[in-house]
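Input (structure):
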């Protein structure tokens, strides 16, 4: 559809290139991130803008070099974009959630540091460039993909935080590895629950709540009757402590 901007979010570990991680101050929790903008163009197609949060020390050349690794994931990343949800115009977007604002605040460098770094980048206005060729089995042709990283100032924050807040299609879920546990007392055991979410979720103030009530809880049935797998054959309490990571 003409005039419609589509976009979706990708977790850092699933990006088609190795983006450097934002580092948080051990005392304040403040990150050292900034928003980087990259234009990715598959020859014969319209250019695509990639926004990501990287440390302020990451240069345009470094990011372009990282993006120019011959990773076939670029093909699926670009092909998924036309099917992604439409991003409303700025005036039509709902305000960011409190969680998204807090996440953005914790990721980006302090305003004074960010302003200094942005001014330096704008003054130097460095562009990083790269190119890769990948054979596209679906099309039966070589895909030539060009990269251009614009290091001329920060831009795109309104879009990237909206996508993080709204642009993921998969609902968060939790999984537990039953083979990983810790006996923390004569009558208690601790499992570790992993939150898998494409949106930022606070790790604080979670509690285990069986979907159909305490009597339905499968862990209560297994542990209360003596687990017959790799756990010790003994009775465990009805209340199990869950830690999230």
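Output (sequence):
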């Amino acid at each position: 559809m003409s005039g419609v901007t589509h976009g979706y979010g990708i977790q850092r570990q699933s990006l088609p290139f190795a983006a450097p991680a934002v580092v948080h101050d051990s005392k304040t929790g403040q990150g050292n991130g900034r928003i980087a903008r990259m234009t990715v163009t598959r020859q014969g197609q319209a250019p695509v803008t990639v926004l990501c949060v990287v440390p302020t020390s990451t240069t345009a050349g470094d990011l372009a070099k990282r993006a120019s690794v011959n990773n076939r994931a670029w093909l699926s990343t670009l092909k998924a974009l036309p099917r992604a949800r439409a991003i409303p115009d700025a005036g039509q977007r709902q305000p960011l959630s409190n969680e998204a604002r807090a996440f953005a605040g914790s990721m980006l460098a302090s305003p004074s540091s960010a302003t200094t770094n942005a001014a330096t980048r704008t003054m130097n206005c460095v562009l990083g460039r790269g190119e890769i060729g990948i054979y596209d089995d679906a099309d039966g042709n070589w895909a030539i993909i060009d990269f251009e990283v614009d290091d001329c100032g920060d831009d795109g924050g309104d879009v990237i935080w909206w996508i993080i807040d709204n642009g993921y299609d998969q609902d968060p879920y939790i999984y537990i590895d039953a083979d990983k546990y810790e006996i923390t007392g004569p009558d208690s055991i601790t499992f570790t629950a992993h939150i898998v979410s494409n949106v930022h979720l606070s790790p604080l103030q979670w509690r285990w709540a069986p979907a159909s009530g305490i009597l339905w809880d499968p862990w209560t049935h297994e542990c209360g009757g003596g687990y017959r797998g790799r756990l010790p054959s003994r009775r465990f309490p009805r209340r199990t402590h869950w830690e999230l990571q």
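Notes: The first helix runs from residue 60 to 67. Residues 173-244 form one domain.
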